[in-house]
Amino acid sequence: MLRAPYASDPARSRGRRHPEAPAPTRSEFQRDRDRIVHSTAFRRLVYKTQVFLNHEGDLFRTRLTHSLEVAQLGRSIGRSLGLDEDLIETVALAHDLGHTPFGHAGQDVLNDCMKAHGGFEHNLQSLRVVDKLEQRYPGFDGLNLSFESREGILKHCSRRDAERIEEREPGGVAARFLDGGQPSLEAQLCNLADEVAYNAHDVDDGVRSGLVTLEQLEEVPLVHRYLRETLSIYPELTGKRLLAETIRRMLSQQVYDIIDATRAAIEAAAPVDAEDARTKGPLVRFSPEMRHASTALKRFLFKNLYRHPAVQAQRDRAEQVLRELFQIYLTDPSRLPADFADGEDHARACADYIAGMTDRFALKEHERLTGKRLIAA
């Protein structure tokens, strides 16, 4: 499908922080995607928790499989809307590069440990990974991605953090958090595809784990509708097939809803190009009805899965692992690898090192340094 006038155009990119000659066979956004895929941080996502610790079961999602699902959903929707699929894929694959081991538990611990040092937030860390921490090129730190990819990676940002970034990079990727602007439509789409993906796969993983049941999920209108629809067509269906078909129908309807609602919003706003689209407010969206249904599902998952006693027990132990690691590295800088030594900001170096760990490396390192095995790896 041809690129729509309001789509991001790699030929009109705002460029890179360090100028580079164009690639002879790839667009700027294709080049960004390839750099992400070949990065160390991307490979580590395969051993980072989504909800369940990586070693708890081979079928559960990890940060890597989640990122792939976001990319697939984003490209499918973006194709129908005429957006740039390569930019969508880049942002989707990179959006969780800064996530800690042990999922949100890790972020909460590091944010608490870093309270006196500027805090910790995984979106900011993802940008830090691609701007500084990846070390692959002789002429600069980071991956030197295009502006459009970097702004998409910075999904959330507090005003305080935005002001800090703006001071270093005037008019850059954080400016929209200060002036009320929007990122590209491709970035907006990745934000929504992220929500659709994790709602769906957390339903799948939650049921497969036995922590929630389809019977419980029937109280959620979005699941109830497609479970009943599936059984009306396949009344004998049970088990994994019933779960998979219900989720497939639920996913498909959310995709169609986003396409229809976004098309209507774009038609009403009539942006003339990608820059104009940034000034029109959020245009990639659910319909009001689907937004309400998605929110209800998120609330159910938070209450019944993310705060399930079995998940919480693992979370508590994971928090102890990371908190103790942080204190060890903070107290004794010699414990950090030379690549992370930073005399000017030792606490941030500790957070960088821990955030880059996989679940199993964090557990092994904690056991090596403390002699305690809190979670069997």
TrEMBL record:
Residues 1-30 are annotated as: Disordered. This is Deoxyguanosinetriphosphate triphosphohydrolase-like protein. One of its GO terms (molecular function) is dGTPase activity. InterPro entries: dGTPase (IPR006261), dGTPase-like (IPR050135), dNTPase_2 (IPR023023), HD/PDEase_dom (IPR003607), HD_domain (IPR006674), PHydrolase_assoc_dom (IPR026875). One of its GO terms (biological process) is dGTP catabolic process. PANTHER family: DEOXYGUANOSINETRIPHOSPHATE TRIPHOSPHOHYDROLASE-LIKE PROTEIN, DEOXYNUCLEOSIDE TRIPHOSPHATE TRIPHOSPHOHYDROLASE. Keywords: Hydrolase. NCBIfam families: dGTP_triPase, PRK01286.1-1. Belongs to the dGTPase family. Type 2 subfamily. Residues 63-199 form the HD domain.
